[in-house]
Amino acid sequence: MEDEKGFILELLNPKTQNEAFRKLVREYQRPLYAHIRNMVLNHDDADDVLQNTFVKVFQNLKNFKGESKLYSWMYRIATNEAINFINSRAKKSGVTNEELKERLVKNLEADVDYDGNEIQLKLQKAVTTLPEKQQQVFKMKYFEEMKYEEISEILQTSVGGLKASYFHAVKKIEEFLNSN
Amino acid sequence: MKKIDLENDKKIESGFKIPDNYFDSFEDRLMQRIENEETSSSKVISIWRRKSVWISGMAAALIVSIGTWMYFEQQKNETIEFAQDYLAYGNEITTEDIAKHLTEEDLSNLETEINNFDSKTETYINEYLN
Questions:
Q1: Residue B80 belongs to what domain range?
Q2: Which residue of chain B is at minimal alpha-carbon distance from A30?
Q3: Which is the most buried residue in A28, A53, A80, B92, by most CB within 10 A?
Q4: Domain boundary among A62, A82, A115
Q5: Is residue B52 part of a domain?
Q6: DSSP of B40-89, one letter per residue?
Q7: ipTM
Q8: Between residues 6 and 65 of chain B, which touch chain A (CB distance below 8 Å)?
Q9: How does pLDDT run along chain A (180 residues), one tens digit per residue?
Q10: Shortest CB distance from A123 goes to which of B12, B26, B29?
Q11: Residue B18: its chain A contacts at CB < 8 A?
Q12: What residues does the RNA polymerase sigma factor 70 region 4 type domain cover (chain A) (predicted)?
């Protein structure tokens, strides 16, 4: 977003806030939706989490200190909202996060909003076998095609650490796909 | 079968479908929700404010009641303490002070009683006190 400081001032000014926020939503709804959907897998859940994310963004605009970029701040909120969603869903169902994710992937087979073929479904299954951090990095790099620098700002991890995580993730997924 | 190589093969897409027109209505739905939440949070504040007036009133009444009760308790204690101190340390009561509270009849009766010591008491006084 060009002239981010000017845009942030528009977001904070009560007179221009509404229009500026609508502009923010239009610009980020698709990438944030994709980010959340990759984590929660189901469309209705992604819709809920996306709404919660923007509501939080709106409510916390006054606390945004501008120390990080606006987009990375929003991605962090979206990531946290999706993680909280998975945690509370797992707790309610009395299962672990890993078990819940396996269940969510299994549900994709009958999901009207999923039209992945066999290899695509297998890839989703393979991802759930990874440790949490590697899942996160793999999804952001492979599916969302983000740069390491962007992921680094969002997850607040070094680029070197992210490259190592992605390398291990790819190896494990290839092993899974080639052996199953 | 050819081995899968994620880095060099064609990208495998996630396979997620988004319902038609989802993003056409998302912005308006979201703004509606934010508006609703703002309204309900201001309602919550007004109910809380009304409640807080009640709570402040009740707290004030309670403080006044406790204060009044403590004041009277203290007064009562002071009266008792005063009486106790007076009895314990009040050595300035003169015969005249006592006499003021007695009638003529009381005084004459008292005089008679004092003068009518029995013989045993008289002997005792004579033997031990003289």
A1: 27-124
A2: B23
A3: A53
A4: A115
A5: yes
A6: HHHHHHHHHHHHHHHHHHHHHHHHHHHHHHHHHHHHHHHHHHHHHHHHHH
A7: 0.86
A8: 6-7, 11-19, 22-23, 26-27, 29-31, 33-34, 37
A9: 668 888 999 999 999 999 999 999 999 999 999 999 999 999 999 999 999 999 999 999 988 877 788 999 999 999 999 999 999 999 999 999 989 999 999 999 889 999 999 999 999 999 999 999 999 999 999 999 999 999 999 999 999 999 999 999 999 999 999 986
A10: B12
A11: 33, 37, 43, 113
A12: 121-173
